[in-house]
Amino acid sequence: SIQVEIEVSDAKPKAENIVGVDMGIKSLAVASDGLTFENPKALKTRERKLKRLARQLSRSVKGSANRKKAARRVAVFHARVADLRRHTLHHVSHVLTRKASVLVVEDLNVAGMMKNRTLAQAIGDASFGELRRQLTYKSQWRGVEVVVAPRFFPSSKTCHVCGTVNADLKLSQRVWSCVCGAHLDRDLNAALNLRHVAASRAETLNACGGESSGGVAAPRETGPCEAGSGLETSVSVSPALPENRDIPLCVGKNGQLLLWELLQSG
């Protein structure tokens, strides 16, 4: 393979459009504007065929022509599954980075999630890490700001209307119902909560006299993100959810905003 470097022209600024994106297994991605991308489950839906091909391979004689053919069929199967998964991820990342000026995603602990034996295969099949990577570099191409919500931000267990937290919400409960009257899909509720993170940040910056339309925070002091690079700014904001907590935003070299939770003392 040959590696080359190309110059990418500056992206044209977009109208303000903040989109929260909730990633999941049932639906691969749900945007805060209601757009839903179904999970193709590229491997799960073809498990029966894979088992049949693997059985044919194991029963063939080593070194025979039939074994080579069986091995080739298994390789072709895995290549097609990978192509389907790759096509889906590129489609999702393309649509989201085209429509948004600010994307808010979760800081998923994929490695930790893979330790769940029940969900490990489904999580690996969804490829959350690859989707996050594609969203990041395509956002840089198109001038989209990427905001990463705190890892432990309870987006799925918090009502986007009143802020009530349901800590006992089970994964099997696919519809969010709240005492305030909110009733909607739990993934859409999570996406709306993620959108609130960036929306509340913009409102706070605007109230303090900083720039909100360009997505650049008013400089104060260097934060813990990319310290020493000379490109860092840090601001303290109070997102709508949860209340009574300050979350600083750090702008790093790659254009991402990383949200770090700090414990307030005193």
Distance between the termini: 58 Å
Low-pLDDT runs: 211-266
The total tally of domains equals 1
What is the number of helices? 6
Mean pLDDT: 77
For the CA atoms, what is the radius of gyration? 22 Å
Shape: globular
Strand order of the largest sheet: 3-2-1-4-5-10-9-8
Helix content: 25-40%
Structure classification: alpha/beta
Major beta-sheet overview: 8 strands, mixed
Q: How many β-strand stretches?
A: 10
The H/E string reads EEEHHEHHHEEEHEEE
Strand percentage lies at 15-25%
Please, could you describe this protein's structure?
- Helix 1 (47-59) runs antiparallel to helix 2 (65-99) and helix 2 (65-99) packs across helix 5.
- With 266 residues, the protein is an alpha/beta fold.
- A hairpin with a 4-residue loop joins strand 2 and strand 3.
- It has helices at residues 47-59, 65-99, 110-113, 120-126, 128-142, 186-207, and strands at 18-23, 27-31, 36-38, 102-106, 145-149, 175-177, 183-185, 234-237, 247-251, 256-259.
- It is 36% helix and 16% strand.
- It has one domain (18-259).
- The protein is built from 6 helices and 10 strands.
- The strands form 2 sheets. It has an 8-stranded mixed β-sheet, with helices on both faces. Strands 6-7 form a two-stranded antiparallel sheet.
- Mean pLDDT is 77; it is low at 211-266.
